[in-house]
Write a structure and sequence with these properties.
Elements: E1 3-12, H1 19-29, E2 33-38, E3 44-51, H2 52-65, E4 70-78, E5 87-89
Parallel strand pairs: 2-5
Antiparallel strand pairs: 1-3, 1-4, 2-3
Helix pairs in contact: 1-2
Length: 91
């Protein structure tokens, strides 16, 4: 399966609610690589790499887990980075 990368920005009440830890657990379950981190704007950035359909499923699970908190989601393609070999929380 072709590996793709996506940069996903989650906006709304997504900091201080366990968002990064939940995203980490979900992404790990889907065996994606990349990272999740808080942004100074109050949003959360996630870079996810793996098969496109798996990234979509991961995003859907995150959306369902935080349906009352996410106001907007922006998804952009990104160049795949082979240096990202696991999924983690960064700062």
């Amino acid at each position: 399966m072709e590996q793709v990368a996506r940069r996903i920005i989650f906006s709304g009440r997504v900091q201080g609610v366990g968002f990064r830890f939940t995203a980490l657990n979900i992404a790990t379950r889907y065996k994606l690589t990349g990272y999740v981190r808080n942004l100074p704007s109050g949003s959360v950035e996630m870079v996810a790499q793996g098969p496109e359909g798996i990234i979509d499923s991961c995003n859907q699970d995150i959306q369902e887990s935080f349906s009352g908190y996410i106001r907007e989601t922006d998804i952009q393609p990104r160049t795949h980075d082979p240096k990202l070999t696991d999924f983690k929380i960064t700062f």
